[in-house]
Fold:
Amino acid sequence: MAAPILFERRGAAGIIILNRPEALNAVTFDMVGALSRQLTEWESDTGVTRVIITAAGDRAFSAGGDLRALFDLGRGKQYQAALTYWRTEYALNTLIKRYRKPYVALIDGIVMGGGAGISIHGSHRVAGDRFVFGMPEVGIGFFPDVGATWFLPRLPGELGLYLALTGERLGAADGTASGIATHRVASPRFPDLIEALCANVSVDALLGAFAELPGEGPLIARRTTIDRLFVGDSVEGILAALDAQAAGEGADADFARAAAAAIRSKSPTSLKITLAQLRRGRSLDFAECMRTEFRIVSRLLNEHDLYEGIRSVIIDKDQAPRWQPSSLAGVSDVERYFAPQPDELALP
Structure:
């Protein structure tokens, strides 16, 4: 069987290829470990002046983490084994964020969850024609992690909160205009771009030469409406604003109606955690964002909604999760998810 992640030295570049196209390049524990070790080696190798990460197949860069494996660990009450995955993954996210060499993610396809964690923190993120970004975790009883506490609140206005609560996706134009991607390059030019990046030439200069204007996507064009409706500090308040807008007519009413329906389908616990998480993230440094996420996941592993969400979406695929509690009114004491704990996340 082919290795799930491939490494290659080509000229001045270290090249990483995610190689599980049949699984939408979902990131396994072994892949996280292998990537961490290789990046550490290349960081001290003077012959490697930049790192390029790309993916096999034409559907996904990486659709996230290996949820089925995490489901099995949790159902087997192997919580410490599951937490080891997140410890290693969050340390990798931090390594990429702090990497001392250009880290160029070539994203042509779906990038979500764990896939965002190994691309969005890189210094350069290139959106191809098939680029689709999303953080749909509240739909599986989880929360946007892998550093989303840091990067979502730093998107323009309230766009990050909108994406987190609804699970909406960004195409290449919106992804580039919002800053999720730093450059927009047509997919057929990716092979030539990789070849050029392997020479010891300025990464910024090369990407500037290959990049094109991103165009205007549907969500950036709706920024004013998003900023007005998602400014609140309670999920109930945001839903009330959306419902009021939806009572009218026109494009904004249609948008609000769809957004409200999407939010109401998600885990109430996840929604409240996510809002509190992103509001906190505005004022935290990156390391504290990662520690915050580890505190949350350490508690959610022992609760119902994460396993029910994965069951509904990934295992049985009935798309009919039975959340506990089933309403926002039933969610109490969100603060406990953020409390310090004896076994905090240690970062490199």
